[in-house]
């Protein structure tokens, strides 16, 4: 098995014996969009003509995959959450490859440019490659975080066949598709468990006939009993009840105080990767989870990377929690611009990471 890792402008190949790479000039590929198709296909064909053939699995790096995760308890309708996420991706929807992977506690939403990876995999197949799956590497951060990419590392990921099939971009997400997984793991990867499977409800015909017959018998007794055993009517005394005039009631509606502060477990946080550094949003999310903040979503900023990190707090977040979050962020980010707004419709805290080198 050979493993491919596709980045923004580079294709890496990992096998037992060699490690190869193919770079795409910016005038050929720009932000995953193929700007010079003729030159792009010529580069890919020449590369695979020399690479031979065989079985392969494509991994998509964090820099070309838009990602968001959300706690299952915070999701009302998964289709609505997916639609809102996919509509924010800065590609035409016709070119957008979509995937949703639902774990026991969290649901992950992924999106990438379909034309970019499908053009490469199609050319690879014409040169004798059997590409099994195309999966987002971000789903396996627990295994890859802080480690150098290698054949053995990618090989440890593919041991779980079910998760690869569930995250395969060849089988894109459509509405009403909900696959569930447990967090029990093998080598740190969740094992698939389809929770939507239900036992068969088919019953033998004889049981159905018996149930219908029993219902008919009970109904016959119910209707026949008054005929054969008529009840003797009883005269009931007539009581005159006094007239009571109802008193008007006053209904009060509680109004939330604008100065009310949220508990740590109720604060909603969004971490957006604006630096272009792969996995940075996930690192910050894990740091905040360690501090007790649990309602955290991650994603990427739209467009180009930003140079300065920014944090926007809603007034519903207490000063003590703001200070605690800032202390955590200062360990990973530099020159943080902190702002505060009166109210926020989406999240109580929005963190945007920046890259000072930009």
Q: Which features does this protein show?
A:
five-stranded mixed beta sheet; alpha/beta; Nucleotidyltransferase, domain 5; Alpha-Beta Plaits; 28% helix; 358 residues; 2 domains
Looking across the biggest beta sheet, what order are the strands in?
3-2-1-6-10
Number of domains: 2
Major beta-sheet overview? 5 strands, mixed
What is the succession of H and E elements?
Answer: EEEEEHEEHEEHEHHHEEHEHEEHEE
What is CATH's topology name of the largest domain?
A: Nucleotidyltransferase, domain 5
Count the DSSP helices.
9
Euclidean distance between termini CA atoms: 38 Å
Query: How much helical structure, as a percent, in the residues?
Result: 25-40%
Tell me how many strands there are: 17
Low-confidence stretches: 177-203, 233-259
Q: Quickly give the CATH architecture of the largest domain.
A: 2-Layer Sandwich
How many whole angstroms does the radius of gyration measure? 30 Å
Mass-distribution shape: flat
- Give the mean pLDDT: 80
Structural class: alpha/beta
CATH class descriptor of the largest domain:
Alpha Beta
- Relative strand content: 25-35%
């Amino acid at each position: 098995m050979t493993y491919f890792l596709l980045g923004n402008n580079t294709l890496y190949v990992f096998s037992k014996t060699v490690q190869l790479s193919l770079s795409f000039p910016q005038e050929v590929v720009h932000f995953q969009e193929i700007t010079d198709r003729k030159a792009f296909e010529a580069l890919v064909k020449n590369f695979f003509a020399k690479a031979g053939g065989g079985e392969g699995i494509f991994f998509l790096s964090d820099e070309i995959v838009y990602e968001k995760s959300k706690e299952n308890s915070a999701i009302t309708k998964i289709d609505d959450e997916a639609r809102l996420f996919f509509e924010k991706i800065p590609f035409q929807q016709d070119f957008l490859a979509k995937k949703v992977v639902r774990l026991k506690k969290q649901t992950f939403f992924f999106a990438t440019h379909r034309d970019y990876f499908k053009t490469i995999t199609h050319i690879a197949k014409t040169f004798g490659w059997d590409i099994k799956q195309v999966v987002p590497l971000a789903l396996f951060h627990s295994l890859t975080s802080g480690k150098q990419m290698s054949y053995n590392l990618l090989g440890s990921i593919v041991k779980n066949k079910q998760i690869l099939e569930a995250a395969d971009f060849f089988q894109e997400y459509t509405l009403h598709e909900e696959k569930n997984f447990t967090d029990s793991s093998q080598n740190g990867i969740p094992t698939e468990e389809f929770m939507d499977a239900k036992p068969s409800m088919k019953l033998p015909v004889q049981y159905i006939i018996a149930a219908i017959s029993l219902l008919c018998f009970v109904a016959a007794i119910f209707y026949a009993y008054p005929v054969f055993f008529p009840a003797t009517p009883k005269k009931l005394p007539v009581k005159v009840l006094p007239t009571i005039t109802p008193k008007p009631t006053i209904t009060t509606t509680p109004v939330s105080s604008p100065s009310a502060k949220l508990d740590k477990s109720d604060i909603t946080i969004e971490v957006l990767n604006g630096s272009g550094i792969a996995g940075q949003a996930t690192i910050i999310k894990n740091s905040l989870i360690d501090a007790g903040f649990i309602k955290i979503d991650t994603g990427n900023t739209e467009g180009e990377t930003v140079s300065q990190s920014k944090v926007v707090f809603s007034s519903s977040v207490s000063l003590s929690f703001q200070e605690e979050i800032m202390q955590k962020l200062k360990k990973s980010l530099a020159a943080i611009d902190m702002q505060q707004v009166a109210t926020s419709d989406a999240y109580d805290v929005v963190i945007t990471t920046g890259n000072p080198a930009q």
